[in-house]
């Protein structure tokens, strides 16, 4: 009886986890297309064309939980060693979602680009025992916004073009 419950939970974890991950990746790809014009770079020093821009800190944070199937799959992997592919997609989704939220924050402040992108990762949910539980990824960087004079100049150039 315990084996049947275990197998049912495993199958449910696989099915619903796969479905949730698929939907999340679809939303991520759509939002990445929408934000692809906003530069996000890991370099510490921006190019000279951004030297006169204003700057501010922008952040994006996300917490993603691991499903039951991935927990079991990762547990089995500890027996044999090697890559834990079940967690790789979890971390990939978390990093990409954190960058998207950072880009949303940068867009909110009117940024042209984000430089000095960094990540912080932490484990949340100690109730999962030795398993991962949930992971938090924080993406942060320096948003570079045009000054008021630069914005007025851009508006004037657009008006002349029309």
From TrEMBL:
Please name the InterPro entries in this protein's record: UPF0145_dom_sf, UPF0145_YbjQ-like
Q: Which Gene3D superfamilies match?
A: Hypothetical protein apc22750. Chain B
Taxonomic placement: Bacteria, Pseudomonadati, Pseudomonadota, Gammaproteobacteria, Oceanospirillales
Q: Which Pfam families match?
A: YbjQ_1
Give the highest taxon in the source lineage: Bacteria
* Protein name, as recorded: Uncharacterized protein
Q: Which protein family is it in?
A: Belongs to the UPF0145 family.
